[in-house]
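User: Hi! I have a protein structure encoded as tokens and I'd like to know what sequence might fold into it. I'm fairly new to this, so please keep things simple.
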């Protein structure tokens, strides 16, 4: 089979595209004919060696996939040949990555693809959709009528947060760096979309949120959180969810934090159990069928362009180039 893989960690240039053996599914696995995959920041950290997950080489890159079941192991109970499925959490903890024509995946990490959803959409929404859903509901217990803030509402996780929070009946505030990004945020349902470069952005946040008591839930997707600013904007007993900033060491203003009875929640999607992730996946599928959630695709390219896709993702994640809105999807 054709696959995108690395023999060592390093820059995007270490990614090779070539032939590797097609995997055989174990008893609890299904073999998927991959229809689409997508790129995530975590993929670039693993490839670079910043996150030490690539332990055996050649290492197939990628977490997300969608496709069709080609073969099932002897103990598989949830899927049959011909079923369309999507999933994430691959390429981690010794599991095979997804950037290949075929992938053998434990059935616990797979979910049925809703009718009408393309493989490209399913792959684009996998990791970011699970992250948004688990962060909002399993960890932060979002309720209707609360004010939710998320940076980057046109991005991968941000666009999912906007849609899922709005579908729950929350008031959603987000930011973007261009008129195009703000237009996307509004189209996804944001009640207020602000340019984060504006000098009065915090004043606008306060003016919108204070009639509701402040911001009840802050979803932090930035690599450099500014907790002093965040805490000043929060409502009493609000929750701040940190899901980014691996190397960040921000100051925590303890006094303002505790006198507001705030909560600070750390969250990484890949720590979720199969049952927790399946619950989130079921919720995402239901919202898709109700036309309340649509994964955002920024660009589509062939799997052979895996190295270029990593460079584009890295340029936007690390170098803040601002050229990517939605997910990069690759098709074998």
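Assistant: Happy to help. Inverse folding works backwards from shape to sequence: for each of the 332 positions I chose a residue that suits the local structure. Here it is:
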């Amino acid at each position: 089979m054709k696959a995108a893989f690395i023999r060592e960690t390093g820059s995007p240039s270490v990614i090779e595209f070539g032939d590797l053996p097609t995997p055989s599914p174990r008893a609890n696995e299904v073999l998927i004919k991959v229809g689409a995959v997508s790129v995530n920041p975590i993929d670039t950290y693993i490839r670079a060696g910043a996150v030490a997950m690539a332990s055996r080489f050649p290492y197939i890159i990628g977490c997300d996939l969608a496709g069709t079941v080609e073969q099932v192991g002897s103990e598989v109970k949830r899927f049959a040949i011909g079923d369309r499925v999507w999933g994430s959490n691959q390429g981690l903890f010794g599991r095979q990555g997804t950037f290949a024509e075929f992938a053998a995946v434990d059935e616990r990490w797979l979910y049925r693809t809703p009718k009408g959803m393309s493989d490209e959409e399913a792959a684009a929404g996998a990791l970011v959709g699970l992250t948004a859903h688990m962060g909002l509901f399993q960890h932060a217990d979002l309720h209707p009528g609360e004010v939710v803030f998320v940076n980057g509402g046109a991005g991968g996780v941000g666009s999912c947060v906007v849609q899922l929070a709005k579908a729950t009946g929350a008031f959603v505030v987000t930011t973007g760096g261009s008129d195009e990004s703000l237009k996307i945020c509004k189209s996804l349902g944001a009640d207020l979309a602000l340019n984060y470069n504006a000098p009065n952005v915090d004043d606008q946040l306060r003016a919108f949120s204070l009639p509701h008591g402040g911001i009840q839930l802050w979803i932090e997707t930035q690599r450099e959180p500014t907790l002093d600013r965040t805490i000043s904007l929060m409502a009493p007993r609000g929750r701040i969810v940190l899901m980014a900033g691996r190397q960040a060491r921000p100051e925590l203003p303890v006094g303002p934090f505790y006198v507001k009875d705030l909560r600070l929640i750390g969250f990484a999607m890949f720590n979720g159990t199969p049952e927790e992730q399946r619950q989130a996946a079921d919720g995402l599928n239901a919202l898709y069928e109700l036309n309340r959630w649509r994964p955002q695709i920024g660009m589509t390219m062939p799997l052979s362009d895996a190295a270029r896709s990593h460079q584009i993702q890295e340029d936007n994640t690390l170098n803040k180039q601002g050229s990517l809105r939605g997910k990069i999807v690759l098709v074998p």
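A useful reference point when you look it over: The CA atoms of residues 150 and 267 lie 15 Å apart. Feel free to ask if any position seems puzzling.
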